[in-house]
Fold:
Amino acid sequence: MIKRKRMRKKKEKANERRSLIRIEIEIFHTMDDKRMNNNDKKEKNEEKEIEYFSFWNRLPRDIINVIFSLLNRQDRNNARSVCSEWKKSRPFEFANFAKKGNTNDLIIMQSLPFLLHLTSISLSGLLFISNQSIKCISQHPSSTQLLSLNLSYCKSLNQECFGYFAAFKNLQRLNLKEFSGTVTPLQYENLFQLVSGLEYLNLAYTNINDPIVARMKILVQLKELNLWGCSNITDTSLKHLSNNNPLLNHLSCRLTSISDYGLNFISRMKQLIELDISCTKDISPAEFKNLLEQCIHLKSLHVFACQWINDECFKQIQTLPDLKQLDVSYCKISRDSIQQFSQLKPHVSVVSAYH
Structure:
């Protein structure tokens, strides 16, 4: 009897242990299930967040920029703190319609309302825009903030568009390359008065002449002037520039009718950093040497196809201490001289070609 009682007690204890183990296993599985459920929920939430943010990240940068253009400064700063992609976004400050052949006045008028913080506009090469586009830009809310306007190769524009420049009070850069309109000196003078703060002016291949250059005395801040291909420009224009524009440090007179007399006036522009007198004919090596002695701060010099440039002139070019760019293509300079120059000044980028 005693043995039987002991056996029963052992069995009962074993059964209790088994039941406790089962309970522990069940508790463990339930805890594990809860953890799995929580992890699944977290993963699903993370996937939703990734999908949400990836949607915004997939938006083209231009669209994000348009959205930023519609926000005020405080809202833009708050939005940039959302993510790195938004931090890179900026409101549109530069509208580039250049060389998009189908662009016309209607497209520009429809696009401008979305560009509220413009500082630069390029309409280069648009053959189908008219003065109406310039009028539309002048009526834009940020017209007074506009710093740069590129109207090069716009064949349909004429001098009437100059009347809308009154809205561009802070304009600093203006490109009128190949402007086809017939403009009088008085009309140019009115234009210069409207944008008297210009620092850069490109009038390449236009019909400007000496009287028009004389009226540039209004542009007291002018630093860069491109007269490339202006066949009516003579030495008189250089005289006006040397007397009236003391800040001018970039000058291009390529394919103009200048001579030694005009080069003498360029020599007085001692602040010049870049000079282009390529394809000029009536200049002597002696006057060119005088120019190099006076304009010692030149960093870029272009004398492409100047047949009067010889080895002696080239030796004088070597004396320029700050020179970084040099174009002596199709000049009467020997290859040995160019090789010696390259060895003496390896930091100078030399462009050379031979007949």
